[in-house]
Design brief:
The complex is a heterodimer of chains A (239) and B (297). By secondary structure, chain A is an alpha/beta fold. Helix content of chain A is 38%, strand content 26%. In chain A, the strands form two sheets. Chain A has a six-stranded mixed sheet with strand order 6-7-8-3-9-10, with helices on both faces. In chain A, β4 and β5 form a beta hairpin. The chains are: A alpha/beta (239), B mainly alpha (297). At the A-B interface, α2, β6 and α5 of A face α10, α11 and α15 of B. Chain A: Keywords: ATP-binding, Nucleotide-binding, Sulfate transport, Translocase, Transport. Chain A: GO terms for molecular function: ABC-type sulfate transporter activity; ATP binding; ATP hydrolysis activity.
């Protein structure tokens, strides 16, 4: 799905989180929102997911105005920073949650839910953990379960908030590859937030560098490396 | 002082220093601390409880039971249970709503709202009762009209329920707020992004996550609702057999030197408290695995 962000601004009381920003995300792209904390990248992601509403501006999904769509209507697969798995539910129930939450007439029967959850567990390469609780999983496993849970609703796009933030370096590298593969096999437009420029540069097709609520530069990783548009970008990608 | 450390005295130089973890106290200190704790517990909790039951049974179990079957005792027990049955659910709902509002949303005056929830803790129950009398008593505008239309609040059940609700209001909210702050909003947000309605997210995500804190809050609230004296004493008018709850009847019987009757009723009240405690322990024991899983995450 093609996403267009049109002059989106957001302020919380007297603090401005986002100055009007515009951005076009081509269908099927893997995009990184890169910036230090307080740059507005998470706010922008949450606006896309419908968890936050912009003070002004519009969001367009495939050319249609989606600004007023509720979080449920957006059908965005959202992976939260600390994964926000439902702690009192098994992995199976976590992944099945979105399917069970559907209105009765579109809710798949139990057998179909089981089939889909099993397939998702295979996709994240953890077929044997369905009966465990989140507290019994490692950080990397939790991240992949959160991803499977987000994919279960057959989302129109995938939004990830610092998906690798809570992991150690080795697992991080492994899961980067995992996300790339899932993106390539599903073809979903994917936006992830990160403050790690290596991660952004290695994984994304398109990198959006943000600072102080503004977009500093948008481009392919190699172009940003070769031609930083502003002194901020130059300094940020060097460190 | 430094000399001592550098050149150990002969007494300790001979044997190797005993190693023990930094957080552990010496044997003597441990024994003293445990003895102090048990002693305090015995004097403040066990002894009074034992005295209540001993006094109740002082002239035999038969007399204690007879005193409990007298109409003023049965009506007091019934009234107390009715008051608890109304005020506890009401406060559970209000408490959840208040904790939800405070922890899941940002708004102006939030600190003020938290203070307001704590108000019943800082105000004397007698003052609260008097405030209700002034507001709903026969001489007030609202009270006069209510009495005229046959629905009196003061010296009647509604007043007792209102006073109990006021006094026990903070318990549920106070238990829930820290738990809900610690859990944050992420799980609810996740439920919403997965297509759940706000109500469904509350029932399937929030409520299971807070159920233990809610249970503690409800039990505390219940214990206080059944035991409340001051506020209820003011609004109830202490009409024997009609508006006298268990604590008030106990006081009246005691003042009339009917010590077996007073202590028998007191024993029932204490037993009700012990029953809720046992219930809580039983639930904790049966769901120990769940509790542990919830904490570890």
């Amino acid at each position: 799905m093609h996403i267009e962000i049109d002059e989106i601004a957001k302020s919380f009381g007297s603090t401005t989180a986002l100055h009007p920003v515009s951005l076009a995300i081509p269908s099927g792209a893997l995009v990184a929102l890169l910036g230090p904390s307080g740059s507005g990248k998470t706010t922008l992601l949450r606006i896309l997911g419908g968890l936050e509403f912009p003070t002004s501006g519009r969001v367009l999904f495939d050319g249609q105005d989606a600004t007023g769509l509720s979080v449920q209507e957006r059908r965005a697969g959202f992976v939260f920073q600390s994964y926000a798995l439902f702690r009192h539910m098994t992995v199976f129930e976590n992944i099945a949650y979105g399917l069970r939450a559907r209105p009765r007439r579109t809710r798949p029967p139990q057998a179909e839910i089981e089939r889909r959850v099993t397939r998702l567990l295979e996709l994240i390469q953890l077929p044997q953990i369905a009966k465990r609780f989140p507290s019994q999983l490692s950080g990397g496993q939790r991240q992949r379960v959160a991803l499977a849970r987000a994919l279960a609703i057959e989302p129109r796009m995938l939004l990830l908030d610092e998906p690798f933030g809570a992991l150690d370096a080795r697992v991080r590298k492994e899961l980067r590859q995992g996300l790339r593969e899932i993106h390539d096999s599903t073809g979903l437009t994917t936006v992830f937030v990160t403050h790690d420029q290596d991660e952004a540069m290695e994984l994304a097709d398109l990198v959006v560098v943000m600072s102080m609520g503004r977009i500093e530069q948008v481009g392919r990783p190699q172009d940003i490396r070769a031609r930083p548009a502003t002194p901020f970008v130059r300094e940020f990608i060097e460190t | 002082m430094f000399d001592d450390a550098l050149h150990p005295t002969p007494a300790t130089a001979g044997r190797p220093a005993k190693w023990r973890p930094a957080t552990e106290e010496s044997r003597l200190t441990r024994i003293l601390l445990i003895a102090a704790a048990l002693g305090g517990l015995a004097i403040l909790v066990v002894a009074p409880l034992a005295v209540v039951f001993a006094e109740a049974l002082a002239r035999g179990a038969a007399q204690a039971v007879t005193s409990l079957t007298r109409p003023e005792a049965t009506s007091a027990i019934r009234l107390t249970l009715i008051v608890a049955a109304i005020s506890v659910p009401v406060n559970a709902v209000f408490g959840i709503a208040a904790a939800w509002t405070i922890t899941k949303f940002d708004f102006r005056g939030k600190a003020f709202l938290i203070t307001l929830i704590d108000l019943p803790f800082s105000i004397s129950p007698v003052v609260a009762g008097l405030a209700l009398v002034l507001l709903f008593g026969t001489n007030s505008l609202i009270g006069g009209w209510l009495v005229a239309s046959g629905f009196p609040i003061i010296f009647a059940l509604p007043g007792i329920v209102l006073a109990s609700i006021f006094v026990t209001f903070p318990f549920v909210a106070r238990e829930l707020i820290p738990v809900m702050i610690e859990q944050g909003r992420a799980e609810e947000e996740a439920a919403l992004t997965l297509g759940a309605s706000g109500w469904r997210a509350f029932l399937t995500v929030t409520l299971p996550n807070i159920k233990w804190a809610l249970l503690y809050g409800v039990l505390l609230c219940n214990a206080r609702a059944m035991g409340e004296f001051g506020a209820v004493a003011v609004v109830s008018g202490k009409i024997r057999g009609q508006t006298a709850t268990m604590p008030i009847t106990i006081e009246m019987l005691y003042n009339e030197y009917l010590s077996v009757a007073a202590f028998s009723l007191a024993a029932v009240l204490a037993a009700l408290g012990l029953l809720t405690l046992a219930l809580k322990t039983l639930l904790e024991w049966r769901h120990a695995d769940q509790l542990a899983a919830g904490r570890r995450h």
